[in-house]
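Tip: read the tokens left to right.
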């Protein structure tokens, strides 16, 4: 299944649209939390499914959720990613390895626009660039040695850092990968009509309860609607979150080569 990452400054905040009337009672909903993000799965039970189908599906999904949280969740104290950020252990599991490699590959295509090491810059500049008028170039230069994709590597099942102060955040790619794993579970159970929404990631297949392809509207003020069938999309960034400083507009993203917010 192909996954699409919309531009980081794209319109965001989606609304799932259902139109007309249909046999909505055939669709079930599973909701919960993964990596600290709420998720919802709407699916149609396949024909001739056993009576235990729904409980079996939930049980398998819960196992994946536990594995994902143990690997990627910043809210899980002993997770792989927290162990790495605290320099306690550099060994990774299969989930972390896949997400890290795919994120680094995507960074090569995008110029590392989605940078997983930029937290020190976010802390330096503050929420909504609250420290915009006080941050000095010297402070920025002090932070640069431990931000940037080129400061961290995966080698023989272990993370290698150029600087022990390097920390990473895999929330955006991780939540996208979570929907992919959920989709694999559904398809393994012969579910052909479903929508998975986790954080700002969506994966859809088949038709919605009204019998039409799943539709996703980008932002309530936008007329742009995506029609998704056997496709996934991760939406990151909000146009209305642009920050205005001295008649200049900035996003909440940072150029890790310069250490300054993207204008």
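Filled-in amino acids:
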């Amino acid at each position: 299944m192909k996954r699409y990452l919309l531009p980081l400054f794209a319109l965001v905040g989606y609304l799932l649209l259902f139109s007309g009337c249909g046999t909505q009672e055939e669709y079930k909903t599973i909701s919960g939390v993964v990596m600290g993000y709420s998720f919802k799965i709407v699916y149609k039970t396949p024909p001739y499914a056993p009576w235990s189908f729904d409980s079996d599906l939930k049980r398998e999904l819960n196992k994946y959720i536990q594995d994902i949280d143990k690997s990627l969740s910043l809210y899980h104290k002993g997770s792989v990613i927290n162990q790495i950020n605290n320099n306690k252990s550099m060994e990774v599991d299969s989930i972390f390895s896949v997400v890290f490699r795919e994120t680094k590959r995507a960074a090569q295509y995008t110029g590392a626009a989605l940078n997983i090491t930029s937290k020190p810059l976010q802390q330096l500049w503050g929420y909504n660039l609250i420290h915009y008028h006080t941050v000095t170039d010297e402070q920025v230069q002090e932070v640069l040695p431990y931000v940037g994709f080129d400061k961290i590597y995966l080698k023989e099942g272990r993370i290698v850092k150029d600087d022990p102060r390097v920390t990473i955040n895999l929330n955006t790619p991780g939540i996208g990968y979570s929907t992919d794993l959920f989709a694999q579970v559904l398809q393994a159970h012969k579910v052909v009509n479903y929508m998975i929404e986790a954080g700002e990631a969506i994966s859809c297949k088949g038709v919605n309860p009204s019998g039409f392809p799943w539709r996703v509207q980008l932002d309530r003020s936008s007329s742009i609607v995506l029609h998704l069938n056997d496709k996934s999309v991760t939406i990151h960034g909000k146009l209305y979150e642009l920050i205005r400083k001295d008649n200049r507009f900035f996003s909440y993203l940072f150029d890790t080569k310069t250490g300054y917010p993207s204008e």
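The first helix runs from residue 53 to 72. The helical segments are 53-72, 80-85, 94-110, 119-125, 137-143, 171-188.
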